[in-house]
Each structure stands twice: as structure tokens, then as C-alpha cells.
Design a protein that fits this description.
The chain is α/β, with parallel strands linked by helices. The protein contains six helices and five strands. Strand 3, helix 4 and strand 4 form a beta-alpha-beta unit.
Length: 149
Amino acid sequence: MVGADYAVSISQASCWQFLAEDKPGDRRIKQENKNQTVVLIEPDASVRDALTVLLEGEGWRVSCLTDCEELNAAIERGGIMVVVSESSLACCGPEMILDICTSNGLPVVFTGHELSLQGAVDLIRQGALDFLDKPFPQARLLDLLHRLD
């Protein structure tokens, strides 16, 4: 597993540099047959790509969505383990995503850098699994997901 000193970065160069770093002993053999999908709702393409590579490298299937309408359609198809969503989407607010996920029994992890501490606490009190302030250590997201798996 990658150490906590590495973080998901907003800059594309940092994302790809981070992904290229692979130190001996830091990674374990990945399972390729995990039967659940991690849904990503992330507007920044470089962050979305970095998270997709990270999560697929851990053996999860990843589905990248852009809005709540696509989220509803994905939920209807089934097989979702967790939703990881940016908290400041223009198309739908975190409360809407949280409502959709909790009404369907899905955990949701929010990410972002524009939400106040109180806003993050409020989302967790309303039912979010966690809030990860960007840039966040990969290990923190991976630990959350491994506990769900």
C-alpha cells in the first residue's frame, strides 16, 4: 500500500508523477476480482484519472459519473460499493448526493477543498462516511474503501 505521505493532487503533473512512483515494498498484489464498483463523481479530469488508476490498481472497478442523473441510473444497475464525490459540484449539491445514496443504502465519501470544517462535519452528521480535504493522502481513501470491502 502506498504510504500516507503521498497525496492526491489537483495538478495533472503531480497526479501522473505520483502514479509513476512505485517503490519496492510499497505495493501488494492486487485482487482483480472485486465484485463491487466505486463510483467517482469528480469534475477535475486529472484528479479523476489519478483516482481511477489508483482504485483500479487496488482491484476495484471504477465508474466515473458527472451528475445526479447518472448516479440514479448507476444505482438502478446495481453493484455499487461506495460513492466518492466532490462536494462542490455545479450540477448537484452534496445534500442531494447524500440523499440519493442514503436512501439507497450506499455509503458516500465527499472530497473537496472549498467546504468549511463545519460544512464537512455537517455532511458527516447527515450520514456521509467521511470527508477528505484535498489534497488527501491516498492511504486514507484506501483504508476507508478496504473497510467497506
